[in-house]
Amino acid sequence: MNNFSADSGMLFLLITTIICCNFGCSQGCLDDEKTALQQIGQSLGYGYEYFYPGSSDDCCRWDGIYCSPTTSHVIRIFYDYIKEDEDPGFPVFLDMSLFSQLKELQELHLRGNNIGELTNPEEICKLVHLQWLDLSANSIEDAVPPCWGNMPSLRTLNLSKNRFQGNLTSFLANLSKIESIDVSYNLFEGLLSFSIFANHSKLSHLDLSYNYQLEVETENPTWHPRFQVQHLLLAGCNLNRQSGQIIPRFLSIQYNLQTLDLSSNLLVGSFPTWLLHNVSSVLSLRSNSFVGQFPQGHQKKSTLSKLDISNNHFDGHLPINIDLFLPQLKGFNASSNQFSGNIPPSVVKLKYVESLDLSSNLLSGVVPVGLTYNSPLWYLNLSNNSLDGELLPENCSMPNLTWLLLHHNIFVGNIPACLSKSLSLKLIDVRHNHLSGTILSLPVFMQLGALLLGENQFRGPPPQQLCQMQMLQFLDFSNNNFSGNIPSCLNNNSVWRKKFQANSWVPVDFTTKGNSYLYQGIPLTLMTGIDFSANILAGFIPDEIGELAELRSLNLSQNHLTGHIPKSFKNLTNLESLDLSHNNLTGQIPPEIVQIDFLTTFFVAFNNLSGRIPSNEHFSTIFSESSFEGNQELCGEPLQRKCSGNDNEDDGRKENPKENAEEGLVDKPLFFYSFVFVSYAVGFWSVIAPLCIGANWRRKYFATIDGWIEYLLTR
Ligand SMILES: *[C@@H]1O[C@H](CO)[C@@H](O)[C@H](O)[C@H]1NC(C)=O
Ligand SMILES: *[C@@H]1O[C@H](CO)[C@@H](O)[C@H](O)[C@H]1NC(C)=O
Ligand SMILES: *[C@@H]1O[C@H](CO)[C@@H](O)[C@H](O)[C@H]1NC(C)=O
Ligand SMILES: *[C@@H]1O[C@H](CO)[C@@H](O)[C@H](O)[C@H]1NC(C)=O
Ligand SMILES: *[C@@H]1O[C@H](CO)[C@@H](O)[C@H](O)[C@H]1NC(C)=O
Ligand SMILES: *[C@@H]1O[C@H](CO)[C@@H](O)[C@H](O)[C@H]1NC(C)=O
Ligand SMILES: *[C@@H]1O[C@H](CO)[C@@H](O)[C@H](O)[C@H]1NC(C)=O
Ligand SMILES: *[C@@H]1O[C@H](CO)[C@@H](O)[C@H](O)[C@H]1NC(C)=O
Ligand SMILES: *[C@@H]1O[C@H](CO)[C@@H](O)[C@H](O)[C@H]1NC(C)=O
Ligand SMILES: *[C@@H]1O[C@H](CO)[C@@H](O)[C@H](O)[C@H]1NC(C)=O
Ligand SMILES: *[C@@H]1O[C@H](CO)[C@@H](O)[C@H](O)[C@H]1NC(C)=O
Ligand SMILES: *[C@@H]1O[C@H](CO)[C@@H](O)[C@H](O)[C@H]1NC(C)=O
After folding, report:
1. DSSP assignments along 90-126, one per residue
2. According to the UniProt entry, which residue ranges have a biased composition of type Basic and acidic residues (predicted)?
3. 492 lines ligand 12 (CB under 6 A)
4. pLDDT band at 85 (very low <50, low <70, confident <90, very high)
């Protein structure tokens, strides 16, 4: 049977070949290559469409497969992010000998397919034509086989974001014709001397970043580069540990350097002004130990479009003429230094600047008018300084503004009306200032994911416009003087109600359950919260809050709320944290609340609740006395107070007609809550996201998240 099909395959092939040679028709794919491709597909668990697209028998027409028009051999495979599993499942074992059957293969792209281990990895060394190998964004845990370092045609190698280990020196030393190497985010270790690259004359892209066990040495032994590199990324790889933590000297004879990333290396010295001229486009010195002042005085013009000097020990004033020597800057990050004085007018004159981060310095004074007037700013972070005056100058107009972070300053006044010109805002964080006044007319920000007003002195009712902002995910109104009622119309919100799956992301660090988690680019539905705590809100908790089924955290504590805990709360099926403590709530704790599966934080202490604490194994074990204390008439586990027979009768369902009337009257706006910090810290997603996100979606997520972050930071 097997022989028969093999024979008929050969025959078919022969006939096809003859016909095609004679009549010039396009040739189909070779049978043994097709079989290999099918096996590759099976071991990767790819979705059906990759194998039988339109039921084509000709594998050359399959998605992602390219054959040579002359020989019909498969020459390129593009299988990036094609895993269609609903469930991530276990990492895949991939047998590389399957590929060695594709003898003419030139490009192999297997990015992002949950590959955990390669079996027979040395087999791909048989592919003498292989020019491009991309195994990035998998979780391959292997030493690199020695023969990979001798692949004769290899030009582009991407092993980024895996768990490859071992000795980079022996691996890279012989690849002297290579053009692009990316081995970032792996577990390579040992000492790597740049002298091994001396004869790699075509090298134009080299990324060794974030191999924390690696030690990269550029000074000893002395060597002379025969390459002119364009993109050099040496972040987080213990650069020049043994030669005084200095900036590599060979950079002064690199004439095409476009990107240079030296971040996270403990480099020392004063501001390397020369790099502003030696690098043409993107320069990052982030997270080192540079000291001293930003160069003042007249400098030669630089063409840099992005400059990141954040998280060093620079001090003094920002230069008064930065606009003259860095006129092209689009992104400038000077965060986390000790810059002092005012935001200088020179920053204002950077007329292309779209992303400006001056946060966590010692800056004082007001936000200059020019910075916000008719400005291309897309990201503005001035948080954690000592800036004062109004949040933004009176006639601000920033049509593209998306991220606005002004928290932890000493701003006064109200939310500026001119923000109505910034309707793309996704995040407003003005927590911890001295803002005050009533918020009567807040612009309706249709894209807004997080509105964080906590720790100010705002008063009056929460603005009704909240109910029109469909994308809201986090609301922090805590620690203000908001009064009136919690708006019942909050149930208009689509994200909280899960009317649709939101797909824009807000990076936030959200405190729930007493812990602060770092979220890297949250799909809006994943983490949601409302924090109205520590205000003077009164009246009932609207029943409608129970419709916000996507809510994960609700904090209404320390207000003057009255009435019952709405029974509708049983519909808050995703709630993880509920804090209603320090109010004047009455009646029983609705027994339905024990049905909320994920509830791990629950506080109703210091109210006037009564009756028996509902229980099931979940409820009575995980919550302690402190969740319930300070309620005179509450009884049962975990409180000491035993229930008498009567306690069961008041089940909290007897609505008090007087209170109901009150509720009708106080159908005013509302308050919500949550704690949010914005942050780009990376750790979280790699762990949690794969667990929470549906699979189809996950593929796209991983495909886009890097792009998105890149976009976020670079636009
Ligand atoms: C290597 O792959 C990673 C992840 O897939 C990607 O972000 C990076 O841009 C690639 N490197 C190069 C040089 O293309
Ligand atoms: C590099 O190539 C040379 C010559 O082809 C060979 O002798 C040597 O063993 C190779 N080195 C490594 C580390 O593979
Ligand atoms: C790595 O390999 C090179 C060349 O084969 C060798 O000289 C060096 O000692 C090795 N380094 C480590 C840390 O094993
Ligand atoms: C580079 O090439 C030169 C001359 O061809 C040779 O002397 C030198 O040893 C080579 N360096 C390395 C690191 O292979
Ligand atoms: C880099 O800067 C140094 C010091 O200013 C200078 O000598 C060298 O010519 C510059 N190199 C390039 C490629 O611009
Ligand atoms: C600026 O740098 C700080 C510290 O390195 C970092 O946390 C922040 O995300 C950066 N901002 C931008 C916009 O890249
Ligand atoms: C604020 O800045 C100070 C130093 O200027 C730093 O120590 C602190 O961590 C920063 N706080 C936040 C919330 O970023
Ligand atoms: C806002 O962004 C758009 C599209 O990127 C751009 O065309 C426009 O010039 C920007 N607006 C300002 C004021 O820079
Ligand atoms: C608005 O901004 C322009 C341009 O900077 C400035 O000339 C004007 O005085 C400002 N108007 C007000 C009312 O601040
Ligand atoms: C709770 O209600 C009692 C009686 O109605 C009242 O005396 C007390 O001030 C209220 N407490 C709060 C925090 O509103
Ligand atoms: C809970 O939701 C269900 C269906 O979504 C609805 O029928 C029910 O009335 C809700 N319960 C309460 C108490 O709101
Ligand atoms: C803004 O700056 C603060 C303080 O440096 C930092 O913690 C935060 O991550 C920055 N926000 C964003 C969105 O980059």
Report:
1. SPEEEEGGGGGG-TT--EEE-TTS-EEEEESGGGGGG
2. 651-660
3. no
4. low
pLDDT above 60: residue 80: yes
For strand 505-506 and strand 522-523, is the pairing parallel, antiparallel, or unpaired?
antiparallel
CB 293 within 8 A of CB 271: yes
Using a 6 Å cutoff on CB, does residue 360 contact ligand 7?
Answer: yes
Separation in Å, CA 482 to CA 281, 414, 468, 532: 48, 14, 19, 8
Cα–Cα distance for residue pair 661/665, rounded to 1 Å: 7
Q: Is the CB of 190 under 6 A from ligand 3?
A: yes
* Band (676; pLDDT cuts 50, 70, 90): very low
Segment 337-373, tens digit of pLDDT: 999 999 988 888 888 999 999 999 999 999 998 888 8
pLDDT of 364: 96
How many other C-beta atoms lie within 10 A of the C-beta of residue 701? Answer: 21
- CA distances, 395 to each of 392, 419, 435, 489, 662 (Å): 8, 9, 18, 32, 42
Q: What tens digit of pLDDT does each residue of 173-230 get?
A: 999 999 999 999 999 999 999 999 999 999 999 999 999 999 999 998 899 999 999 9
Is any atom of ligand 7 closer than 6 Å to the C-beta of 180? no
Q: Which of 148, 168, 169, 197 to mutate to test the pocket of ligand 3 (most atoms within 8 A of CB)?
A: 169
Could you give the domains of the chain? 30-163 (3.80.10.10), 454-681 (3.80.10.10), 686-714 (no CATH)
| Separation of alpha carbons 415 and 637, rounded Å | 47
> Which of 122, 125, 174 should be mutated for ligand 2, with most atoms under 8 A from CB?
174
Looking at residue 703, its pLDDT comes to: 33
The tally of CA atoms less than 13 A away on the side-chain side of residue 424 is: 11
C-beta of 690 in contact with ligand 3 (< 6 A): no
Q: Quick one: which ligand is closest to 506's CA?
A: 12
Q: Extract the tokens encoding 654.
A: 């007897």
- Return d(Cα 573, Cα 528) in angstroms, integer: 13
375 near 351, Cβ under 8 Å? no
The residues, any chain, with a CB within 8 Å of residue 312's CB and separated by 6 or more, are 285, 286, 287, 288, 289, 290, 291, 336, 337
Q: What is the pLDDT of residue 40?
A: 87
Q: Does the pTM of the predicted model rise above 0.85?
A: no
Which of 541, 558, 560, 609 for mutating ligand 10's site (highest number of atoms within 8 Å of CB)?
560
Band of pLDDT at residue 644, cut at 50, 70 and 90: confident
**Token pair 């400006």 is at which residue?**
356
Closest-CA residue, ligand 11 atom 2, reads 571
pLDDT for residue 592? 86
Residue 317: its H or E element: strand 313-317
CA dihedral 62, 68, 70, 71 (to 10 degrees): -90
Query: Could you report the per-residue pLDDT of 11-29, keeping only the tens digit for each?
Result: 444 444 444 433 334 467 8
Here the tokens at position 131 are 């020019």
Q: Which atom of ligand 9 is nearest to the CA of 394?
A: 14
Q: What is the mean pLDDT of residues 45-70?
A: 71
| C-alpha angle 680-683-685 in degrees, rounded to nearest 5 | 85
